[in-house]
Design a protein that fits this description.
Blueprint (H helix, E strand, L loop, with lengths): L1 E2 L10 E13 L4 E13 L3 E5 L6 H9 L6 E6 H4 L5 E4 L11 H5 L1 H5 L4 H14 L15 H13 L5 E5 L7 H18 L2 E5 L3 H7 L2 E5 L4 E8 L15 H20 L2
Parallel strand pairs: 1-10, 3-10, 4-8, 4-9, 6-7, 7-8
Antiparallel strand pairs: 2-3, 2-5, 9-10
């Protein structure tokens, strides 16, 4: 079940390909297939969200793309990274902001670790802070920031090394709706300016439809792709009004109907 769309920001060439990927976890007495069979691809500059029932392997799939764990079968090919043309950035569900460093130093950690010149680090950090409206807080410490600001800092830390692919593992799940919506707006603006391929794992279907070019729906364990929905809402999107549109309702209802069936089946 696939809905085709117009107006994506992405190019036509795949930057990541998952080919018949499966993942099994073993104990002494049993084996559990977290992922049964996933075959899909992600294009350069595309924003894709992955949704599905709890325990269906969404984060496991993201971890395999990142290289944290290997597939039991099949393969994941990252064309640009393998050829040295790109890097991966990963934003975890719990932020990794260091409390003893200022905002500026936190954002510059990645480039500093990679041995970049101080002048280059400063220029990169300044540009990112301005993009995220955090310039005034450059010398603040994490305990002086709101939850939303900390998440922005964590996002900038993932962007500081200029990754070609940005992987997001439920980065906004602990935030209130107001803060989350403002971060959605900023994330879309940053994505449009920098052009990364973004893959977001989320339990929030509103979030997925609001942000994405595509929404991939995984079924219950052992998971497989039930739907790859092309979101036809044109960019740029107003995150404060997009949920009121007919297109949003159409996509949301189509995906929710399928998810509801999976939720009932997994009870």
């Amino acid at each position: 079940m696939t809905t085709m769309a117009a107006g994506s920001l992405a190019s036509s060439s795949p930057i990541i390909e998952a080919r018949q990927v499966g993942k099994v976890y073993y104990t002494r007495t049993s084996e559990t297939w977290a992922i049964g069979d996933i075959t899909t691809s992600f294009r350069k500059g595309e924003f894709v969200s992955i949704v599905g029932p709890s325990g269906c392997g969404k984060s496991t799939f993201l971890h395999m793309i990142a290289g944290f764990t290997k597939p039991t079968r099949g393969e994941i090919v990252l064309a640009s990274v393998a050829s040295g043309r790109g890097k991966l950035g990963y934003i975890f569900q719990k932020d990794t902001v260091l409390p003893w460093y200022t905002v500026r130093r936190n954002v510059g950690l990645g480039p500093a670790f990679n041995g970049k010149p101080r002048s280059e680090i400063n220029a990169r950090v300044d540009a990112l802070l301005e993009m995220a409206n955090l310039t005034a807080f450059a010398d603040a410490y994490p305990h002086q920031l709101s939850g939303g600001m900390r998440r922005r800092v964590a996002l900038l830390m993932g962007l500081a090394n200029d990754p070609e692919v940005l992987l997001l593992d439920e980065p906004f799940s602990a935030l209130d709706t107001h803060t989350k919506t403002h971060l959605h707006r900023e994330l879309l603006e940053i994505w449009r300016k920098l052009g990364q391929t973004v893959i977001l794992v989320t339990h929030d279907l509103d979030e997925a439809v609001t942000l994405s070019d595509r929404v991939i729906v995984l079924g219950s364990r052992p998971s497989r792709i039930l739907l790859d929905e092309r979101i036809e809402i044109p960019h740029p999107r107003d995150v404060f009004t997009v949920r009121q549109t007919d297109l949003f309702s159409r996509h949301f209802n189509r995906i929710w109907t399928l998810l509801g069936q999976e939720f009932r089946a997994s009870e």
